[in-house]
Design a protein that fits this description.
four-stranded antiparallel beta sheet; 27 strands; Immunoglobulin-like
């Protein structure tokens, strides 16, 4: 009996020691844009509000003051904005240390830190997805991902390999893409994420194994976010572990196996395998008009809806209102969730920036 309780105690101490914190960024309070940073823990579903750096550049331009993702290393928390990818940093232990680092000069929605001091970012403009790097004051464009891939919401390392949550112009649903840092054009599809919209993703090391998680919404709701573990070896999706009553913009954690190694992409042509699958993709960022790429006949699109980050429906287009060029000039600048539904009940969801 004593040995039994001793084993339980050892397990509890072991599990508690490796129950790692992670951070998310969100916007809870609208109509004004107030960025929120929450400290989370894998042991529970509580969220602790922590200090968030206030944007200091182009603060009257909504996309430039709305954080779209967060990255964390041993000493710092990094934030990126959606419009032109303005990057900020603060020390984890010092809330007065906020610093503007510069800009990627691109619409960015995914960010991650490695163990060598590099910050990697992805985003897309006009249907082109690019990979960037920041280190010691220098912003570098590393290359362009294949035409079929679009950054959906986050980057994360898993066992020294870089992955991006994304969507592709030849798939419905969302996917993980393995990013080839040395040659981004050789990045490849890794696994499907069904109908989840993964705005956040991260890995932790529990002392024995690495574990990967995504945080996202489903195509049926944009008001809550779910934390789900992914089995990266079996390429399967686990059960929902936590549900948060807000939309998560991105997630970050200090993860020790984040030194970029060689990609082991399978370079089989996706376009040849899935050329008949429907797609719907809005060209980001949008201006007074919203345009999109699709192989769906417009008569087969039943509705196009726009939601703010709190899940409130802002606009809805149906019937004759749906065209190849939709007027949204009365929409204020910011980040929105677009949900498109076809007459067959298929839904496509995407984060857009105006």
């Amino acid at each position: 009996m004593k040995n039994y309780f001793k084993a339980i105690l050892i397990f509890f101490i072991y599990y508690s020691s490796y129950a790692q914190d992670f951070y998310i960024v969100s916007q809870r309070d609208l109509p004004s844009i107030i960025n929120k940073t929450f400290k989370m823990n894998l042991q529970d579903c509580d969220s602790i509000n922590t200090y968030t750096c206030p944007p200091t550049v182009d603060i009257l331009n909504a996309p430039e003051c709305q954080f779209t993702d967060i990255a964390v290393n041993k000493t710092g928390i990094y934030y990126v904005t959606g419009g032109s990818g303005i990057l900020y940093r603060r020390n984890i232990a010092d809330s007065t240390s906020c610093l503007h680092l510069g800009t990627f000069n691109y619409s960015i929605n995914a960010l991650v830190a490695d163990t060598l001091g590099n910050i990697y970012a992805t985003g897309q403009q006009n249907g082109i997805c690019k990979l960037f790097k920041y280190n010691s004051g220098i912003f570098t464009t590393l290359g362009t991902l294949p035409n079929n891939f679009f950054s959906c919401g986050d980057l994360f390392f898993y066992m020294n390999r870089l992955f991006m949550t994304g969507t592709t112009s030849i798939f419905t649903g969302s996917y993980l893409v393995e990013v080839d840092i040395a040659n981004p054009s050789q990045s490849c599809y890794y696994m499907g994420l069904q109908n989840l919209q993964p705005w956040g993703a991260f890995s932790v090391y529990d002392g024995v194994n690495s574990r990967a998680f995504i945080i996202g919404t489903s195509t049926t709701s944009v008001k809550t976010s779910s934390l789900i573990e992914i089995n990266m070896q079996a390429k399967t999706i686990g059960i929902v572990q936590c549900v948060y009553p807000f939309l998560v913009g991105g997630a970050g954690v200090n993860y020790e196996y984040s030194t970029a190694g060689s990609s082991i992409c399978n370079l089989t042509s996706l376009s040849n395998q899935f050329s008949n699958i429907s797609f719907f993709k809005v060209n980001n960022p949008v201006g007074d008009y919203m345009t999109f790429q699709t192989n769906i006949d417009l008569s087969n699109i039943s509705s196009i809806e726009l939601f703010d980050v709190s899940g409130k429906k802002i606009k809805s287009f149906k019937g004759s209102e749906i065209s190849e060029k939709i007027n949204i000039n009365d929409l204020t600048s910011g980040v929105y969730i677009l949900n498109t539904r076809t007459t067959e009940g298929v839904q496509y969801q995407q984060k857009i920036i105006k």
